[in-house]
Write a structure and sequence with these properties.
Length: about 450
């Protein structure tokens, strides 16, 4: 059901050599680029008509208008199961608590008397937030994308999610209800690469009832399949992106004190997403490894989505139980792996968690499973995958802000440093740079005080 990789008794290599020993899903975005390129070009030149055509081709339903009517969004909230509504409202409340604390404030530094540099944080003007469809329904992704954008102060927020045949070409009603709870009324029934292209280029021909089409955005965030990731890569530069999200991952660093029932359940929870999902246990306990293997068999036997998701995910090359000599080696392995989600289930979990350098999010101890972070911890579940946690962060308020430096110097403050500026300009063979300074002082550089 799940393979083993035994690294005990070995001196673990460094860097990429260690990463190469660890399980990882194949996710060839480069190969998908040529498939999405004509789609994006078609949307660029033909706007909404192209998006509608590709929706019919890939999602099996033709919509008359990409923009979801306001009454459909309101109706989805009215018809939402009260328990689901309460859960979403609590998820939103907790996410706001955490993300509100991430807001940055303007800060001014006096470099010298009369010379200041102010860093001002400005939200992007307009964002496109992508919410995937397909195997599962993700109203939680609406929360995780919209809340940080709102807390950052973004004024223009548009959400796109694939049209669903069973709902008459609208996105899933739970997704629409989540948008309603968050006060988002600009929602489009578009998925895949064509949705990313719609956000990047806008739709040139407008909607069927005379309303304007989707205006271009500055930034696109949100997870999706390999074609969404490829469209993001292709269009990066025209739009900002959060990340090229790959298959979801969980790594669990555990010792003999961990409960194998918990560990197995958490590994299965990620395998449930997709047949390419990665579930990795790193442990120094052969007994725990055996117990987890037994629990996986028992729990998978009574799970849903086994044949199409869980079983192939656990059996795939991206999932494994990695045996290490001790927890020090285990820590080296998980830092090399850089998991999207990392659970620490050891006797001294907090101390080990404090030493983790590479992870999208870290879950400490037996009572902080990844599922909590997916919905109601208050943290964000849009996280780096594929080892990108070694250089990238999860979605946050910062993702929607730009830092702008405002430089304000008086004549005396410039005069005091003018000779240094001219010297460096000449050292770089850029004499016009120095001349821009000299011109302000009658072409004679002041001597420093």
């Amino acid at each position: 059901m799940i393979s083993r990789i035994d690294l005990r008794g070995e001196t673990l290599p460094e860097g990429s050599a260690l990463r190469d020993l660890l399980p990882r899903a194949e996710f060839d975005v480069e190969a998908a680029l040529e498939k999405v390129r004509p789609i994006c070009e078609d949307v660029r030149h033909h706007g909404a008509a192209a998006v509608i055509e590709y929706g019919e081709k890939f999602d099996g339903v033709r919509v008359e208008d990409l923009r979801v009517p306001a009454e459909a969004i309101a109706r989805a909230l009215e018809e939402l199961d009260p328990a689901v509504r309460a859960a979403l409202e609590e998820s939103i409340r907790r996410a706001r608590l955490v993300h509100r604390e991430q807001r940055r404030t303007t800060h001014t530094t006096q470099v010298v008397p009369g010379g200041t540099v102010t860093e001002k944080w400005i939200p992007v003007d307009r964002v496109g937030l992508y919410v995937p469809g397909g195997r599962a329904v993700y109203p939680s992704s609406v929360v995780m994308n919209v809340v940080p954008a709102q807390e950052a102060g973004v004024e223009g927020i548009a959400v796109s999610s694939p049209p669903q045949k069973e709902f008459g070409g609208l996105p899933h009603p739970t997704i629409l209800a989540a948008c309603a709870l968050l006060g988002v009324d600009e929602v489009y029934a578009a998925g895949g690469a064509q949705a990313i292209a719609m956000f990047a280029y806008g739709t040139v021909d407008g909607a069927a009832d005379g309303r304007p089409g989707c205006a271009p955005v500055d930034l696109v965030t949100g997870p999706g399949n390999i074609y969404v990731a490829a469209a993001k890569r292709l269009l990066k530069g025209r739009i900002g992106i959060d990340a090229e999200a790959g298959p979801t991952e969980i790594a669990v660093l555990a010792d003999a004190t961990a409960d194998p029932v918990h560990v197995a359940a958490d590994l299965i929870s990620q395998a449930e997403h997709d047949p390419m999902a990665a579930s990795v246990l790193v442990t120094d306990s052969d007994e725990l490894a055996a117990a987890v293997e037994a629990e996986l068999k028992a729990q998978v036997a009574v799970a849903r989505h086994v044949d199409d998701r869980i079983a192939p995910a656990l059996a795939g090359r991206q999932s494994a139980i990695v045996l290490v000599t001790d927890l020090e080696d285990g820590l080296r392995v998980v830092n090399a792996y850089g998991a999207e989600h990392l659970e620490i289930q050891t006797a001294d979990a907090a101390a080990l968690a404090d030493r983790v350098r590479n992870a999208g999010a870290v879950f400490v101890g037996p009572w902080a499973p990844v599922s909590l972070g997916d919905y109601c911890a208050g943290s964000n579940h849009v996280l780096p995958t594929g080892g990108c946690a070694c250089h990238s962060s999860g979605l946050s308020v910062q993702s929607f802000l730009r830092g702008v430096h405002i430089v304000d110097y008086t004549r005396d403050a410039l005069a005091d440093v003018a000779h240094h500026v001219v010297t460096l300009a000449e050292a770089e063979d850029l004499p016009a740079h120095g001349a821009a300074i000299k011109a302000r002082f009658g072409w004679k550089v002041p001597e420093s005080k």
